[in-house]
Specification:
This protein has 67 residues and is mainly alpha-helical. Helix content is 34%, strand content 0%. It has one domain. InterPro entries: Rossmann-like_a/b/a_fold.
Length: 67
């Protein structure tokens, strides 16, 4: 918890000898053309183990090409 008590140093552009055009949106080397929202998560599969749970799990993992 010593990190909470340590002072935080901050610098501005003149301290770092950087021009404003070199940082931020103006200084970015790349640009984002478009972005899309991530689809909502779907419900998972519930396996009720009645002695065949391991087999069902293995089949599921094989179907997803994990094994």
């Amino acid at each position: 918890m010593a990190a909470k008590k340590k002072p935080v140093q901050s610098w501005d552009l003149s301290d770092l000898d950087i021009e404003a055009e070199e940082v931020g949106l103006e200084g970015a080397w790349t640009a984002v053309d478009s972005a899309t929202a991530r689809p909502a998560r779907t419900a998972g599969t519930i396996v009720k183990d009645e002695g065949e749970g391991g087999k069902q799990l293995a089949e599921f993992l094989a179907g997803q090409k994990f094994i």
